[in-house]
Specification:
alpha+beta; Immunoglobulin-like; twelve-stranded mixed beta sheet; disordered N terminus
């Protein structure tokens, strides 16, 4: 498994005639606007080239791999020194954009890596088999094995009756055409351009205001990227794309983006979602011709997992997030725990438990709450995690009839991250419940008797390698745990999460049999407190009922937008986490809505205020088993059973305790097994981005090669020619002469010049040639080319 790209995004070639983009005030700066420079796809990239003060931008020449592409660039109306253009014709792999203007001491060289439109960029090898659904998604039949489909553009308008309608001619003005006033105060006709196409084997859609049929007319220069919920294990292109005709966002002027692989019910893989986010944003930026001021991520349930994981692990893709019905990450044991608990309720002992006892075991306020959560454990089972309405059952794993079939587990879906167990060939798995004391808090509170507690834990069981019930507890793979912590699969408030504002909104359903328990937002807050010493970048909204939830959602969008605008406008030079806190709006505080009215009150378990009393959080099975709220433990360390912890057990009960927990019970005062910090961000799981390095040649010519001897010496013009041309244009060549220094003879620098012109030549006059003198030239290595040196020549002096 490759955890790092070896491709160097920007190579600073000090003193060699090339500088990295933006390296100094005296140099031209080059920036990739549409994506990170090593995440360019589809053969094109929106670029910006900025001339230094004193250099006329019209004199700047821009090259792509040596070929002049200056005509692709136009002046930026907001910056007289900046040129912006879409550079096309990029080759697969490494590319170089270079820029120079006569009179500048150095040229600037900017490296790109171009990958296919179908990906992958960093999520690892494509999943196979993969079922195309372009027709079901309205994109027509697939055109290749990567489920590609043509890019199409359509238009809609907002009607005065409150709905969207198709618009054949975007420049027309239907009688019922509504107008909208964006958050920047601009009032425009409410016409929307919608683009649909495929990237990364996903169907994407994005929408933007296009008043009068002009793309981006009314756009507020900001993105809202929407993510869908659910959780299944891939092998298909998707059944839905979040609708870009989102009035709450479009009416405010935002461009709205998403794709079928940003829906967790297509593929529960946050790395794949991050990769797709980069590629869809790239498409929109290239069309709009400018980079957005910021991008907000919005998503509920599985969508909340994506945006919170992307914020931690792939910073820069999202600048702020609005999670709803949130979970901190995708490692929660609640689903598999509840499936085990719900199964136990079907036994004679379990069926005898009262509603209060069931609630004490699960932590939920509804005695049947675990039945809802149990459904989410399909992704634990190798036969159940795929969407069978799309993925044929004939290709899915079955231990008896199809043991070689597709394994539909969460870990197999992310096998590029976790790798395979070399002994079994199955994906490494983090699932573990060894030592977990289900119902411990119920026992301690007296709601469960010791025998009821023992019956539960003796019969709870676990999952075998295929995700079927096993009388034995589940055991995690140690290497999988290491990988999960190191690569950020557990949300630890790390990476980029502290550098963004979080406005968490939740429709309260704790009193229902529902998977979206309020407790999960408190888990996220507790982790921010534990790992970062506070949660100043996160606020929590909660509501229930139509008028309350709509008011909450509108406030969340506007609060996040105001917060992010203030951060973007802060040019103080303070670190980003400080900017987030320093620019927090006064109304960015915890709040709830009751009968449509906002009430500001701290979100804190146990707090006595109107919001917490109206919308109390509850708990979940692993926390009822003793895990603290801020835990990121995948597998617990254990301690010996201490009978004193269970009141006054009799010898038989002590024997049962030891038999149930032969390796001890969870010790939550210790870190989890293999628990460690996130090792870094922007981790790549493949493909490796390699750049081939070619040889080149450098020649020199002396003019004249023979000079007449004089007391003062004669000058010789040395002309260096560098090949291949023009790819090496504007590299600096160093000229040297051989001189005596004491008893030694050394090569001494005589000067340097930038290689220019159609022949890639540079010349220098070396003065005071008094005797036969050896001369040479050299050029240091640059991306894609080895260093080279011209064969030395002798300037001869004749008497």
């Amino acid at each position: 498994m490759k955890l790092r790209n070896i491709f160097l995004l920007v190579a600073t070639l000090a003193g060699l005639g090339f500088t990295a983009g933006g390296a100094s005030a005296a140099s031209i700066s080059i920036e990739t606007l549409s994506s990170q420079s090593n995440r360019v796809t589809g053969g094109d990239a929106l670029m910006a080239v900025t001339a230094p003060s004193g250099t006329n931008p019209s004199k700047v020449v821009i090259r792509r791999n040596g070929s002049v592409v200056t005509s692709s660039f136009k002046p930026d109306p907001n910056d007289p020194r900046k040129l912006v253009g879409l550079v096309s014709g990029l080759r697969s792999g490494g590319n170089v954009i270079s820029a120079w203007a006569s009179g500048l001491p150095n040229a600037t060289r900017h490296d790109l890596f171009n990958s296919p439109n179908a990906g992958p960029l960093f999520s690892g090898p494509h999943q196979s088999p993969y079922i195309c659904t372009t027709e079901a998604l309205g994109a027509g039949p697939p055109t290749d094995e990567n489920c590609s489909a043509p890019t199409t553009v359509s238009y809609s308008y907002r009607s005065t009756d409150g709905g969207f309608k198709p618009l054949a001619d975007p420049a027309s003005r239907p009688a019922d055409l509504a107008q909208t006033t964006t958050r920047t105060g601009e009032t425009v006709d409410y016409v929307v351009r919608v683009e649909q196409g495929t990237v990364n084997r996903a169907v994407y859609r994005w929408a933007v205001l296009a008043s009068g049929g002009v793309t981006g007319n009314g756009w507020n220069q900001r993105f809202f990227y929407n993510y869908g919920g659910g959780c299944s294990t891939g092998h298909q292109q998707g059944q839905s794309v979040p609708n870009p005709l989102n009035n709450a966002e479009l009416s405010r002027g935002y461009a709205v983006l998403s794709s079928s692989l940003n829906v967790f019910n297509t593929s529960c893989n946050d790395v794949l979602s991050a990769e797709t986010t980069s590629m869809v944003k790239e498409k929109a930026i290239e069309t709009l011709g400018r980079k957005p001021v910021w991008t907000a991520g919005q998503g509920g349930s599985g969508g909340s997992v994506q945006i919170q994981m992307i914020a931690q692990n792939y910073p820069g893709l999202l600048d702020g997030i609005n999670p709803a019905a949130s979970f901190p990450d995708n490692s929660s044991p609640d689903y598999p725990d509840c499936r085990l608990i719900d199964r136990y309720y079907g036994t004679a002992e379990g069926a005898a438990l009262s509603n209060a006892q069931r609630e004490a075991i699960s932590g939920l306020s509804n005695p049947n709450g675990c039945a809802a959560l149990a459904n989410g454990a399909d992704v634990v089972n190798a036969s159940e995690g795929c969407i069978e309405a799309v993925v044929p059952t004939s290709i899915i794993f079955n231990a008896v009839t199809n043991p070689g079939g597709v394994r539909c587990t969460l870990w197999d879906n992310m096998v590029n991250v976790y790798g395979q167990d070399p002994n079994t060939g199955k994906a490494r798995r983090t699932l573990d419940n060894v030592g977990v004391q289900y119902g411990l808090k119920g026992l301690q509170a007296g709601t469960l008797t010791l025998n009821e507690f023992l019956d539960l834990n003796q019969n709870i069981g676990g999952y075998d390698d295929n995700g079927d019930f096993s009388p034995q507890r589940s055991v995690a793979d140690g290497e999988a745990l290491k990988i999960a912590y190191r690569t950020g699969r557990f949300q630890q408030g790390a990476g980029g999460i502290t550098s963004i504002p979080i406005v968490d909104e939740r429709t309260y359903v704790d009193d229902e049999a529902n998977v979206h328990q309020y407790f999960n937002t408190y888990r996220m807050r507790a982790r921010l407190d534990r790992f970062n010493g506070g949660h100043a970048n996160q606020i929590m909204f909660r509501a229930k009922g139509g008028s309350s939830t709509s008011a909450m959602s509108d406030t969340a969008i506007d609060t996040l937008g105001t917060w992010m605008d203030a951060i973007a406008a802060d040019d103080s030079g303070a670190p980003k986490p400080e900017k987030v806190v320093n620019n927090k709006p006064a109304n960015a505080v915890d709040a709830c809505w009751i009968t449509g009215q906002r009430i500001d009150a701290v979100a804190q378990i146990g707090a006595n205020n109107q919001c917490e009393n109206q919308y109390p959080p509850h708990s979940l099975p692993v926390n009822q088993a003793g895990a603290p709220l801020d835990s990121v433990i995948g597998k617990c360390q254990t301690k010996p059973v201490d009978p004193a912890d269970y009141g006054n057990p009799n010898p038989s009960q002590i024997g049962r305790l030891n038999a149930i927990f032969p390796s001890g019970v969870c010790d939550y005062s210790k870190p989890g097994v293999e628990e460690q910090a996130v090792s870094g961000t922007d981790v790549s799981f493949g493909p490796q981005q390699t750049i081939t390095t070619a040889k080149r040649k450098l020649y020199i010519k002396l003019s004249p090669q023979k000079v007449k001897k004089t007391k003062k010496g004669k000058p010789v013009k040395v002309t260096a020619t560098l090949h291949p041309c023009p790819e090496v244009t504007w590299q600096r060549v160093v000229f040297e002469r051989k001189v005596k220094k004491g008893k030694k003879t050394i090569w001494q620098k005589s000067g340097s010049k930038i290689v220019t012109g159609s022949k890639c030549q540079a010349s220098i006059r070396i003065k005071k040639i008094k005797r036969n003198t050896r001369l040479r030239a050299r050029a240091e290595a640059i991306t894609g080319f080895h260093k080279t040196q011209a064969p030395a020549k002798t300037a001869k002096v004749r008497r």
